[in-house]
Amino acid sequence: MSVDNVEDVVGRQFPGGEFTVERWMAYLWADATRNDDDAFRHEEAAKEVGADAQLVPPEFGMHIAMEGSGAGIEGALEGLDIDWESGVFHGEQSFTFHQPLVVGETYSVTGEVADVEQKEKFDILSLDYEATDTQGNPAFRTQTRIIITH
Length: 150
What we know:
Radius of gyration: 17 Å
Oligomer: single chain
Helix content: 10-25%
Shape: elongated
Strand content: 25-35%
Number of strands: 5
Strand order of the largest sheet: 1-3-4-5-2
Distance between the termini: 5 Å
């Protein structure tokens, strides 16, 4: 894929939506990522940081963003000429947290294609997501950088 007209994708807004973190999801994510830290599994640890419910591994924010935005990677890149089998890679993930993520919370998520860097043999797309809690308070912001070869 080569993005010939950057204006076609930069600023593309994702549909947006909500995502509720279920206890079993947080547990499986912690288990799958080999996060054996009790802080992400027990309510007692949540109380130590002032949270009212069981904490969720911070990396789970990526799943919240993708599912809650209503787009995911495929939806974010919809309409672009991409060879998914030969060259789409997760390049980088960054987070800014404003509060701990907790089980049972429903997060509202918005997102957009923030930037495209065109290189000779690949492009880097930056996807920005913002999540708020049910009271509208900022929960986290994350940026995903996707490498697409051409």
